[in-house]
Request: fold
Amino acid sequence: MSKILYVEDEVFLAKIVKETLEKEGYVLRHVLDGNQALTAFQSFEPDICLLDVMLPNRNGFEIAVDIRKKSERIPILFLTAKDQTEDLLEGFQSGGNDYIKKPFSMEELMVRIENLIKLSKGNEGQNRGAGKSLLKEITLGESFVFYPQKLSLDHPSEKKTLSMKESQILEILCQNKNAIVERKSILMSVWNEDSYFNSRTLDVYIRKLRKHFAIDPSVQIITLKGVGYQFVG
Reply:
């Protein structure tokens, strides 16, 4: 039985979503105010967070940053008005995994919730039961070690926990080290579509990965304009 933290200040919408999801067997805690979200997250320990973008006191992106400080693996789904879509690049930078536009159908919402929970549980299952695969490691450059199953990028100076999307993208690049990887190929592998918005989101994750590797100049993600990327390391 999956637990959902739902942060939404539109009372009528929240009532519909809450009642529908509870009828489907989810356990849901609804919070109206952004200031209450982190406290609810810590006490409720949800399996997924649904965050409206525009909220009183703290917006959904700020809440996502707070949640990511506590957990790197809890899925975060943003609920956004149509004219806020471009702002969602900031949302993915703050740690979001997916988004859905208002007004949305409950069927679509439930599909997105289940997909994110399955991805999250799948990674947990791999970490618990993968056995020798947990030892799978990829040495990068002079000093990095990437553990795809653990979503971990280790360096002598620090260890970073990657988001699921960061890890997926980096693993694709590692599997094709020194070769050209087409941009569309990454988009289809990670998002199953090459839409404009997903393409912009990929740019965000590439920038984040480059930032991780900045301390080791022997590791580079080279952009081949109009084609894709070449990973050197």
